[in-house]
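Hi R.,

As promised, here are both runs. First protein below:
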Amino acid sequence: MKIVCLDLEGVLVPEIWINVAKR
């Protein structure tokens, strides 16, 4: 997943994963 790669680089904001966890 491109999202995971970006997260590893620290590009994405942790808030995105918080929203995913709520799902």
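And here is the second one, sequence first, then its structure tokens:
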Amino acid sequence: MAQEKNTLYCSFCGKSQHEVRKLIAGPTVFIYVECVQIFMDIIREENKNTLVKSRDGVP
């Protein structure tokens, strides 16, 4: 039971430190490196779509 209390979990996907390769620590949260990759992919896609929209009116 003490081990469960000390187990760290990803604040986004909920996976424990025992299920993942690496957790990145923030001041009060942890994030699994694969969650970081998912968020980076989402941001890249959003930026790509924004860039395309901003060029729509350019001749």
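A quick note on the second one: The beta strands are 23-25, 30-32. Let me know what you think.

Best,
J.
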